[in-house]
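Standup notes
- DV: blocked on the single-chain target, sequence here:
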Amino acid sequence: MRTANPRSIVIWTLVALVGAAGWAVLALSRDEEVSAAWMVAAALGSYAIAYRFYSKFIVDRVLKVDKNRATPAERLDNGIDFHPTDRRVLLGHHFAAIAGAGPLVGPVLAAQMGYLPGTIWIIVGVIFAGAVQDMVVLFFSTRRDGKSLGQMAREEIGPFGGAAALLAAFAIMIILLGVLALVVVNALADSPWGTFSIAMTIPIALFMGFYLRILRPGRVSEVSLIGITLLLLALVAGRWVAESSLADTFTLAPSTLVIWLVAYGFIASILPVWMLLAPRDYLSTFMKIGTILLLAIGVVVTLPTLKMDPVTDFASRGDGPVFAGSLFPFVFITIACGALSGFHALISSGTTPKMVQKETQIRMIGYGSMLMESAVAVMALVAASIIDPGLYFAMNAPAGVIGDNVQAASQAVAGFGYSISPEDLAQAAKNVEESSLLSRTGGAPTLAVGVSEIFSKVTGGSMKAFWYHFAIMFEALFILTALDAGTRVGRFMLQDMLGNVYKPFKRVSWKPGLIITSAVVTGLWGYFLWVGVHEPLGGINQLFPIFGISNQLLAAVALAVCTTLLVKSGRLKWAWITGVPLVWDATVTLTASWQKVFSSDPRVGFFKQRSIYQDAIDDGKILPPAKSMDDMHTVVTNSTVDGVLSAALALLIVVVIADAARICVKHVRDPRSSRLSEAEYVESKLTAPAGLIATPQEKAELAAAKTEASDDAQVPS
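- DV (later): unblocked, structure below
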């Protein structure tokens, strides 16, 4: 049994003390200034302890990963979907794929409740729920030839619960992709800088893919350096383009962006994964992680004060101007991806398990990537909490609440219990070269303002406008990488579903199948996006209100599948690892679903909102946000659709959980009746490190493997 050396004990004791000090200051400080650096300390200290001890306990004691067992990437390598990918590239791909709009936008909106509830859920939630879900799903999918979440549910839970899981997962996936695409369109519309820079990542990624595959196989450090250099040039050139005669060429209307996004999603879904998807996601990770690290360093250097209250009155009253509903359950639903996300389970059972070299890398890729995303969420919450609360509410409350001018907004904010003068509102917009910051809802502009506050202090109080627009472009890049990987995963899910009817579809790299299913998936989310862009109350806008709940309901499916597999595979005593998060997530999301369907508050309950708007139509009245009687009818339709969908999705998830519980009880009573669909054991011939940095033992194994390969090459045939 290994014993920790004194140096290790000292280091980890210091890490624990840093995290504990951060938590103590955040929890105990009242009516005094608190530096945002304490939030960063609490997060980083907690992440380090969780990764070093909790994730290692799970992979070693619970999952018992086997470095000698061949993964599907090794056994089924076909250069299209199955391809053993360097752990560093795959870590970048997986992180880029899971990190979409959620960790950027959700925490910003949740700041309405104060910075403390969000901080606690983001950090505690990711350690015990989100990162665990991602890692365990990735492990079980890797053991099953990269099967999708829905297909695993069908094979392990049964046809009834499995069918409900397949249907719910695919429907939720289309909603999530449509919402992600809409955020990208809104961020890039009329932004030549962002459009040019993001467009350039595609040829750069193609070059990197061919470099690693054909020109210099295995030279990850080389291609990383080249990619970073080209990416930085693309970012700098983007600003030059925006200020040149080429600006009009890269200034695209929303409808044009929709066409380009759909085309890109389709192409990225059918090309070999090594050619575009993996290198592009890996490339974008440098910018994502680099920006977040610089933001954390900026917080430590400038020590900005948290201006938002630790807990606001809106947390208990539930009448916040940003979103309605009390702290429980809606702060957890709003934060979503930063702590726990069902979308991640689709990636962990989609592209990633078909690319992982060794089971031992699952800890770094599954658990580690999710901790990285949670760090993004913490920095987003910091950015929202260091700006003036009056500006925060003026930016995030809808125009129907605060009006359309700075005087009205100032008065409305005063009614919320905060204050900001009309002059300060006008100056805040001028500082970032915007005509107005009023009602810039959605979270992204607020994050950009917070980022510009921190970075401009580092640069001596200047360049605030530059950093604001840089952050807007950064957010679009962040989200787009989740869109392309999500489209490919949607294709896998549809192939699994259709494969139950027509066998060739089960071969995920069967060309007719991958083209047909890619076209269907991009066509579905593309349709909702197109309508949403052209109709402010239609298309994906119609489904936007159920984005958070549907994502968390999908997490319940993933945790139910994981718990069932832990029980069926003889790990009953460890089933609490996913079982406890499942109970919590199901309680939160089903409570939220119930309130969204049946609440008597029209700002919360869909059917109550429908009733009020229908009564207004009968009386010939027009209520905001509607501007015409046609809009009024659209609101009634949207409320009805959202209410029915919320109820239907919740019912499907209840069916999945109930069927999973039945299977678990059945197994406990008679273990011999259970059947696992795990792939047969095949011994691995690959040698690869488990973490980012190879241990001395792994270096020796790599050297031995290299020598053996060289000797084999010299032996005459």
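- Follow-up: The first helix runs from residue 6 to 28.
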